[in-house]
Amino acid sequence: RSSYSCRYFVLPCCFFDFHGKYSRRQSKKTQYREYLDFVAQVGFVCGFHVEEDCLRIPSTKRVSFIGKSRTYPPAEHALVDKQITQFINSRQPCAVATCDRRVGFKHKDHCDALCEEAGSEPPEDETETAGTIWMPGFQPREKVEQIRNCASLPRDFVDEVVLNVANLLLNAAPQKSCSDMQGGSTNTWNQGESLSLREVAEHLNKDTLKKLKSEYGGLQTLLKNNHQVFEVLNGRVHIRDWRKEKPPSKTKPEVKRRLSAEAFKTRLCWFFIHHPDGCSLPSEACPYAHGTEELR
After folding, report:
1. What residue ranges do the domains of the chain occupy?
2. What percentage of the chain has pLDDT greater than the value 70?
3. Is the pTM of this model over 0.85?
4. What are the BP-aspect GO terms (predicted)?
């Protein structure tokens, strides 16, 4: 409806209408199929040749619709816009359609009909023609969405939190010491204690927590992003022991093997730099660089 040259792609998911949850009208179809037909109908009413496609994604909701061309010439755009208005208003629940700015569309013809049924006169200011205001108070999302998955946090801030949490786990009592499994050696490597996310949060300062709460997932997301150092299972934080990680499959296709090799040792090993016992793996077995000279 924004312009005649508009094109769209939509992947229907949650069952919502224009003004609230979608109400089923047929029992012979599944709820998903009925909702897909409704979304396709919206496209047809808006004057599009609607194409349906099934995406190759790991989801049960993967049927999409594409509108690339119109079913009418540009000269009929105003007429079709009125038809769209009527269709939208016809989907509006009677209990909600009260000619109120807060809940409906400002279209005189529809308000006249509704207020006639209610035995009252339409408000004097409800005189705009179709298409003037689609939905008062509607706020579209920003053109550039803010990334809030902790990935855009300052690197210094993230490094400080990682170091603080790791030290907290290493110094927690009782400490866990894991025997070195390489060649039956009796050397020990301190894996520290596991703590709940709440216990970890209680040891962080207020400014740090405030900054993390503004991100989706907060502390848990930041720790999971730092996969090299931490393992978060069932709400508890552990320091990752790379000796226990499963070795990569030997049956990987050649392309995957090549990509894995290219990604090997592109980052410094956090344990080699910060852990009091160093890295639990020898340099040749660690996927991270033990020193800048090993970086690729």
Report:
1. 8-90, 155-170+192-294
2. 73
3. no
4. tRNA methylation
